[in-house]
Amino acid sequence: MTGMVVCGVDEAGRGPLAGPVYAAAVILDRARRVNGLADSKVLSAERRGLLAERIKERAIAWSVASATVEEIDRLNIFHASMLAMRRAVQALSVKPEEAWIDGNACPPELGCRARAFVDGDALHKPISAASILAKTARDAEMTALHDRYPGYGFDKHKGYATAEHFESLGRLGPCEIHRRSFYAVGVFFQQDLFGQGWSAMAEPQRLRRYRKICQAIKLERSS
Q1: pLDDT per residue over 68-118, tens digit each?
Q2: Is residue 201 over pLDDT 90?
Q3: Which of 37, 96, 156, 207 is 20 to 30 A removed from 47 (C-alpha atoms)?
Q4: Do 11 and 45 lie in a common domain?
């Protein structure tokens, strides 16, 4: 890493059907190394938690920010992710000279120079550190939201599009933290697809209908 003050930046939660998108920014201290930094996706939850504590203890500065479900639906997930990353950089207690962003796009109005790195979370330690903080913060939030919205399994899949999540959506319908701008959720708000009669159906019938609609939309979009 160069002698300039660099912050790594990454997000967590672009793909899920529910919950906010998180971002983190980290300025590492070269004099206080954190061993084992890597892309958060290849680390176990236990390892991520341990590294997150070490990053917070040893970094020169770090911050975590988010964009809400409402912002995701209003702006779209890409722009909401950019917003969360900008908030994280601007919240740092030390102003960076340059921000290194995971991906192929840089958020606007960071207040410093910025560079984007594809697979940056696997290549550059500051971005790896940011990916770990963003991931652990979002996972903790989704676990907390599970207590408010039981029945969906948010504590397990963290809002991602797993088979379990699709099944719970088909049985229960969406809750307040589901992203309406994502088609698997948005179909519930199209009256020509889901009328008032859906809520009166037995759960197995709801699930079958939901699966058919999602499959039809997938086929339409791929044609």
Answers
A1: 999 999 999 999 999 999 999 999 999 999 999 999 999 999 999 999 999
A2: no
A3: 96
A4: yes
Structure token digits, residue 110: 């960071």
The HSE-up count of residue 88 (CA atoms within 13 Å, CB side) is 36
Q: What is the tally of structural domains in the chain?
A: 2
Domain with 60 in it: 6-148
In one-letter notation, the amino acid at residue 139 is D
- Tell whether 175 and 143 lie within a shared domain: no
Residue 134, C-beta contacts closer than 8 angstroms, at least 6 positions apart: 10, 11, 12, 13, 22, 23, 24, 40, 64, 88
Q: Are residues 105 and 185 in the same domain?
A: no
**Euclidean distance between CA atoms 155 and 145, whole angstroms:** 8
- The C-alpha atoms of residue 215 and residue 209 are separated, in whole angstroms, by 10
pLDDT at 36 over 80: yes
Range scoring the smallest mean pLDDT among 11-15, 74-78, 187-191: 187-191
Query: Do 109 and 196 share a domain, yes or no?
Result: no
- Structure token digits, residue 175: 């809750």
